[in-house]
Amino acid sequence: MLVVNNVSKNYGDFTALKNINLEFGSGVYGLLAPNGAGKTTLIKMLVTLISPSKGEILYNGTDITSLDEEYREVLGFLPQQFGYYKHYSPKSYLMYLAALKGIEKKVAQEKITELLDKVALSDVANKKMRKFSGGMIQRVGIAQALLNDPKIVILDEPTAGLDPKERARFRQLLTELSRDRLIIISTHIVSDIESIANEMVMIKNQELLYKDSVENICNTLDGAVYETTITNDELASFRANHVLLSEKQEQSKMLVRFVHKGESKEDWTVKNPHLEDVFLYEYRDDLSLGV
Amino acid sequence: MQIVKFECKKALTSPIILFLLLLFTAYNILIVSNSSDFNKELHVANDVANSYGVEITDETLLKMEKDLQEELTHLNNITEEKAGQSFSSAGEFFSQLTYERQEKYSEDQLDSFYTIYLKEMYLDTAKHIDESYQKIDIKELGENNIQNYGLSGAASESLSKQYEKFGNRFDEMKRNMEHKRWFFAGKVYSMHSQLFKQLFLPIIFESIILIVLSTALITNYEFENKAHLVTYATKRGRRLMVDKLVASLAVSTILSVVLLAVALIVYFKVFDYTHLWHSSISSAFNWETNFPYVSWWEMSFLQYLVGAIALFYICMLLFSCSTFAIAVLLKNSYFTFFGFIAIFTILFMLQGFMPKSSNLIFVTGFNLTSLVLNPHQWFMASNGLLVFKYYEVITVLVAVVVITILFVFVMKRFNKQDIV
Fold first, then answer.
1. Cβ atoms within 10 Å, residue B381
2. What does the angle CA B245 – CA B248 – CA B250 come to, to the nearest 5 degrees?
3. Residues A133-154: pLDDT tens digits?
4. A contacts of B235 (beta carbons < 8 Å)
5. CB of B237 within 8 Å of any CB in chain A?
6. What is the ipTM of this complex?
7. Which of A47, A81, A95 is opposite residue B233, by nearest beta carbon?
8. Does B246 touch chain A (CB under 8 A)?
9. How remote is the C-alpha of B327 from its chain's centroid?
10. Measured between CB atoms, does B242 come within 8 Å of chain A?
11. What is the mean pLDDT of residues B179-198?
């Protein structure tokens, strides 16, 4: 459906993305990387806001730049910073965006009512957005991304500002939508997509690190994730010698989860690796975890 | 169309633009009402044109003189009865009138005497038109201007040539008898300046302010509300900018038409032009300072007004287009506003920096700023340094070409630009 072909993006001397090759079919894809890794740059290229310095992005075999309107017609996009007009109500703002998406007024009115109901904003549909919470604004953003019933939905940090209940509801909505669509969700919160993504894309040092199922990505650390209990005094030297994934205080001792490749010790318990473990391990430098 | 409506709504519901529109409209009404103290006297020019026709001929002047004699007899009947005096003219009556003597006459009687006095003034001016116009030497006027502006070399030659053309036009105007039309006495009422300078000029500035603000607002609205990532990723994409240009032009039309229409309706309600619409703009009465207004073409007052309104509107649309181009480049309303003011000021000052021996001194005058700052001189041959027959047309065409090039450049740049 969507192919990223040898794409690079440079800003002067700075390289934001290097030789990215990706292929997306229907389903949910998680784009996972810490902030500043180039996720947003890739997403902005996928939605034609910026163009690649090198390479091309193809939709059903044709360059998205030459497809122009035809491509964006099937696109739904929620940017990381969803801008809105404070003096507009969700309904009037969505009517404006519907016009930009080429949706007829009558069709748009029906669709907006349906979507506002879906994101639980029906009761504030005509209220000005200036008093809305971050979560409410984000839900307006989600609704606008779905206005044109898109075949490709690209969401950049869609759960930012949502409370746990709203996140659960959002995941449910995505599962519903994912049947015959391509959904790309960029996030740095692993739990948001771990359970719903068919495949994960991870970018490191401006290059593609993984594009695989959650299971296969987790398998890269198979047999290398351990847990053990140490004293508080030992923590500093343990940090210096191992890649720590988590630390948890248990009575007077410390339960640590870590990555170790090589011979294990007797009191270490081998654990099944989770996506979060791979994320923390791969991006340990970016996230400033002790190594 | 739906998108254009949404874009227009952004500017037309902006509190600052609505507030300024109301403020400027009120100010324009104030300008008209502040200068309306003599509007009761203006009926005289209308009455004269109504009674004797708008054209001044020897026959009509004779008829008017005869009628005035009858009115003077009526005046003398009253003055003889009240004060035992008789006068050779209403002017003589008023020159001897003191407060004590004034009390002998009723308000209505004094008003009717004053009307006779004004008619005498109009008749006297009309009788001396040929004499006054014979004294005008266009060549000498050109030489004086060359001297006053300190021109030399090519610039001096060019201006001389223009004044030669003006001389031909002046002779043609006299042959056409365009100057022999009744109009409000310019030296007394300055009605041409009143309308095209005192009223048009503030309206031009007000319209420019509103147009620059609204165009910048419409163009940069998404960037300033951080909604650009959503809007430019929609189906419409970067073509939204074209809708914004159309919306800017529509809003500019609405704002400038409202400002001008309200002001003109109030003006023509206060000042009566009923019988002078078809008088000539080059009338000898339209002579306010040391030289009468002489248009390059034979034009009635109505034609001149329509031409001025059309030119005003074209200029406003061009200002909107240029603001749009600046706004697309700068993507910030404040920078756009100040950028526009900077360019406007530079264009105004440009002519002053040119060598007085070079034709550049004229070339640099062909800009929108110089054009809009002298609305009372539009289409006039007596326009100082800018005494070119097609000055308005050339300036507008130059502006159209420059703005089109700028527009194509900024749109091409915007279409390729990363939106971040």
1. 26
2. 110
3. 988 999 999 999 999 999 999 9
4. 69, 72-73, 100-102, 148
5. yes
6. 0.90
7. A47
8. no
9. 29
10. no
11. 93
Q: Of the candidates A211, A128, A143, which has an alpha carbon nearest to the alpha carbon of residue A177?
A: A143
In degrees, rounded to 5, the angle at the alpha carbon of residue A119 between the alpha carbons of residues A115 and A121 is 90
What is the mean pLDDT of the segment spanning B106-128? 90
The type of residue at A87 is H
Q: Does B228 touch chain A (CB under 8 A)?
A: yes
Is A49 in CB contact (< 8 Å) with chain B? yes
Q: How many CB atoms lie within 10 A of CB B65?
A: 14
Contact B225, B333 (CB under 8 A): no
- Separation between Cα atoms, residue A271 and residue B321, nearest integer Å: 67
Chain segment B302-327, per-residue pLDDT in tens: 999 999 999 999 999 999 999 999 99
Residue B397 main-chain phi, psi, to 5 deg: -65, -40
CA distance A120 to A138: 12
pLDDT, one tens digit per residue, over B69-80 is 999 998 889 888
* Full-model pTM: 0.90
**Exposure of A263 in the CB half-sphere (CA atoms within 13 A):** 2
The per-residue DSSP string of B137-194 comes to -HHHHHHHHHHHHT--HHHHHHHHHHHHHHHHHHHHHHHTTTTSB----HHHH-HHHI
How close B212 gets to chain A, by Cα (Å)? 21
Write out pLDDT tens, residues A38-86: 888 999 999 999 999 999 999 999 999 999 999 999 999 999 889 999 9
User: Which chain B residues are within 8 Å of A107, Cβ to Cβ?
Assistant: none
**Which structure tokens are listed for A236?**
């500093």
Q: Taking Cα atoms as reference points, which of B365, B368, B2, B381 lies closest to residue B163?
A: B381
Domain locations in chain B?
A: 2-38+183-416, 56-135
B109 has a chain A CB within 8 A of its CB: no
Return left, alpha or beta for A37; rule: phi > 0 is left, psi -120 to 50 is alpha, else beta.
Answer: alpha
Contact residues, chain B, for A73 at CB < 8 Å: 235
Q: By the 8 A CB rule, do B170 and B136 touch? A: yes
